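Hi W., the 2-keto-D-gluconic acid complex you wanted:
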Amino acid sequence: MKPKILVTRSVFPEVIEHLSQHFEIDYNDQDVALPADELAARLSDKVGAITMLSDRIDEAALRSAPNLKAVCNVAVGHNNFDLAAISAAGVMATNTPGVLNDTTADTAWALLLASGRRIVGADKWVRDGQWQGWKFHDDWRGHDIHHATLGILGMGRIGQAVARRAAGFEMRVIYHNRSRLAPEQEQACQATLVSKEELLRESDFLVLLLPYSPATHHVIGAAEIAQMKPTAHLINIARGGIVDDGALIEALQNKTIAGAGLDVFENEPALDARYFALDNVVLTPHIGSSTRATRLAMAMLAADNLIAALAGRRPPNLVNPEVAGG
Ligand code: 8YV
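Structure:
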């Protein structure tokens, strides 16, 4: 008999095919999150699960799943996991780093370019039939991207991929991070480590790439935004909650900063409706990693993590190594 696993929501058929060679699968083939009570009920007889960011794996969910050995997230972020509770239950937790770096970095650049050059507002204006003719003093002046200063807060794998792309725009790249990059990484990114204050003060485009945790909650709030240039653009491709949305909305309303490109929000998908009235913000629905190739690679990596964990091997992307003996 094959071990029983849960796949909490719809993935690609090839992922199910791959998993089915090893497991008996309880598959929620709808692309809608299971309600917490149904998630707990369906975990109750499982040894493993492929989970998504919408699945909260906490003490309550774990209590109903005494046989669970591994939960494998299809995401690099894992703030849907209560890691302390998962580790206390002796369950392995994994994520999908690496395979989404380039796609997410591309999305960061799409937001940066769109915000800096006001592409979305201009597109809407044309569609609305408001374009009466070319003007030297048009309504759509943006900010130069080339030769500007790109700041990156959180210089992990995705941050470095964002930085490397700046070379083509001949930008100056500065970053702030818990620790300094290795010399060869700094060289590849052509990036200089600065204090958080300098990063806020100097960046023309500030890209946020921090994971969400209580320590990073509202890392960008009113006090931080006040230190930014009035011509600066803020790009959040990481997690809602690292930015205080209320403070950002006020800054965008008062033009304390020039613009923002946001893929993630506090309480998404229930955005603060004040965003909708602003023409200096570009909004996307948490699509950072959303290409078919990348989402497939993420789901396959999660599947490989689960296969390794349930075969008694150390999964390649274990995020709570204390469970596997360090
Ligand atoms: C995904 C993400 O778009 O990996 C993450 O942490 O936020 C994104 O890659 C999505 O959340 C996948 O579940």
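DSSP finds twelve helices and twelve strands in the chain.

W.
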